[in-house]
Write a structure and sequence with these properties.
With about 575 residues, the chain is an alpha+beta fold. It is built from 20 helices and nine strands. Bound molecules: protoporphyrin IX containing FE. One of its GO terms (cellular component) is membrane. It comes from Phanerochaete sordida.
């Protein structure tokens, strides 16, 4: 009963009463000859003949479908054979590497894949979504810097962009004219020559932090969060927020939604974008309800401080800040489109700059508890250069290479975003003979690059000396850990501002405090582990520390400086 495929097409057409197809190899059988070939008894009733022919037709259709499906899979199979993706775990049929893609400590696991498969770039695929991870400085330079027209786009996360309100954060907008416009305006206010105007506010935040550390050293983590957030609010909106200010609380709660999104790894929604159309009340559609809650907070984070600043400007009581400069640039009367861009630039500065700085300062405190000898080494320099009558200023930086080396080592040791923010390949590409398909999520593994023993020998050791020459100056042959700030054209444009904040905060803390192990009620030192949270936005796992004034006049110096601010 089975048909040869060469005859299939013509047979179906004959049964349908159509003329033979052009170029048919075999003569198309007539209905009479079919009746004969199918062994249908010519004397059988018309109903029985029709039934047999219907069965025959159904089989023919099924075989055609089977043939189409088999051809489709064969083409896919051969295409994949021809396209050599970068190496990675083998994966399972249909779901691919769904269970291989790590949701925790991905930076370490992807680095291990590179070692196992002997390749700078590694690959995973799940349900048609390709992930390529770039694990070496050379490959990162070749791809992100060398091919910016391919790798400057951003991953279009449905959760981040469409449902949660984070589409306003221009760090995630697609590469194109709108991104260029955001970046151009932002750069005008954050290039190195524009930064001196922010130094007094950054210094004020650092000095307030010292005072809070004096009063309640055990709460150092929340003081660091306050100081980092208030410094950026002050620079962006000229809000002089004291601890507990509701404006700080609002932006902090909005920031928590981003941390939650990043902590969740790849949201199911991003693998199945169709799910965004599921009604929010359906069981299992909890992500939609979550996203609606996120959106309210994130919208408020962008809209409320911006609207308040504009109202203050109209009443003539706004202090100069980033947002007033942005508005003055367009005569305070922007078009609605321009207004949206300015609001996004102001809000993104807060969003991008607060948690990253908090995480870096937390990692600094952890390193100081764990490596007291490094702390003493840097404090010796501060005492020698700055003395004990004043606090360090930004103008001291050139004379304090140990402080700079310490900050560089903190950034190299562990990063707030060890896998950066995901980029996206805009078109198909080839690298080292491997195929990188258009639409792949491309991750720069900053952690792996900054733990490459060829560039940073003994990479797990915390050793700021690696950045210092024998004469005590900064070495020019050991690279600054740029990758902590991302890659290519999307590299963090706030990095110079961030380095100023870090310098002022780290130098001021070490000038007056000895950071030590906390002591429990029984007088025993509380143990501290070198441990970091395992998700996208990473920080030191919660730990205890004590901040003790280093010398008799330290407390007076802190209080006097706070009054002068
Ligand atoms: C230690 C502090 C900081 C770290 C570690 C950090 C890190 C990063 C990283 C990894 C990216 C993603 C780059 C990429 O996509 O390849 C980024 C983007 C960005 N950062 Fe930062 N950042 C810090 C502080 C800041 C500050 C203080 C600001 C603002 C004043 C800022 C503003 C931005 C913006 C606007 C983007 C998006 C750039 C774009 O998409 O073109 N960052 N940052």
């Amino acid at each position: 009963m089975f048909l040869s495929t060469s005859n299939l097409c013509g047979t179906i057409m004959a049964l349908a009463g159509l003329p033979p197809p052009p170029g048919a190899i075999h003569p198309v059988p007539s209905t009479r000859s079919l009746v004969h070939r199918l062994n249908i008894c010519p004397s059988a009733s018309a109903a029985s003949q029709a039934q047999t022919l219907t069965k025959y037709l159904a089989m023919a259709i099924l075989e055609t479908l089977a043939l189409i499906v088999a051809t489709f899979f064969a083409i896919q199979f051969f295409k994949q054979q021809r396209r050599r993706y970068p190496p990675g775990p083998k994966g399972l049929p249909v779901v691919g590497n769904m269970f291989d893609v790590p949701l925790e400590n991905g930076w370490r696991i992807f680095r291990d894949w590179s070692r196992e498969y002997g390749s700078d770039i590694v690959h995973a695929e799940t349900l048609g979504m390709h992930i390529v991870v770039v694990n070496s400085a050379k490959a990162a330079k070749d791809l992100f810097d060398g091919r910016p027209h391919i790798y400057s786009d951003k991953d279009r996360s449905t959760m981040v962009l469409e449902l949660s309100g984070w589409r306003r954060a221009w760090a995630s907008i697609p590469y194109g004219d709108s991104w260029r416009e955001h970046r151009r305006i932002f750069n005008r206010h954050f290039r190195t020559s524009a930064l001196t105007r922010y130094h007094p506010r950054q210094a004020k935040a650092a000095h307030r932090l010292l005072q809070l550390l004096l009063d309640a050293p055990q709460d150092f983590a929340s003081h660091i969060r306050y100081a980092s957030g208030s410094a950026i609010l002050d620079v962006v909106y000229a809000f002089d927020a004291l601890p507990g200010d509701p404006r700080l609380d609002l932006v902090e709660r909005a920031m928590e939604t981003l941390a939650e999104i990043l902590h969740a790894g790849v949201f199911l929604l991003d693998v199945f974008p169709i799910l965004k159309h599921v009604p929010a009340w359906l069981p299992g559609a909890q992500f939609k309800r979550k996203a609606a809650g996120y959106k309210k907070l994130v919208d408020a984070m962008f809209e409320v401080p911006y609207a308040q600043l504009k109202a203050d400007m109209q009443e003539g009581k706004a202090q100069p800040c980033l947002t007033t400069s942005l508005l003055f640039d367009c005569d305070s009367d922007p078009t609605p489109e321009r207004d949206e861009i300015l609001m996004n630039i102001a809000g993104t500065a807060y969003a991008a700059g607060s948690d990253t700085s908090v995480s870096t300062l937390g990692i600094f405190v952890l390193a100081m508890v764990l490596y007291p000898e490094v702390q003493s080494f840097v404090q010796e320099e501060i005492d020698r250069v700055v003395g004990r009558d004043r606090l360090p200023e930004i103008s001291d930086r050139g004379a304090l290479p140990r402080v700079t080396a310490l900050i560089q080592e903190v950034l190299r040791w562990h990063q707030p975003l060890p896998l950066g923010l995901p980029h996206r390949a805009m078109v198909d590409d080839e690298y080292n003979g491997y195929h990188i398909p258009a639409g792949s999520v491309v991750l720069g593994n900053a952690w792996a690059i900054l733990h490459d023993g060829a560039t940073y020998p003994d990479p797990t050791a915390f050793n700021p000396n690696r950045f210092l020459a024998a004469d005590g100056a900064l070495r020019s042959d050991v690279p600054f850990p740029t990758e902590v700030f991302g890659f290519g054209r999307r590299i963090c444009p706030g990095r110079h501002f961030a380095m100023d904040t870090l310098f002022l905060t780290v130098a001021s803390i070490l000038a007056v405090f000895r950071i030590e192990h906390a002591v429990d009620d029984g007088g025993r030192e509380v143990e501290v582990q070198e441990a970091f949270t395992p998700h996208g936005l990473s920080q030191a796992e919660p730990f205890k520390a004590h901040f003790a004034p280093r010398y008799a006049g330290a407390e007076d110096l802190v209080r006097a400086t706070a009054v002068m601010d």
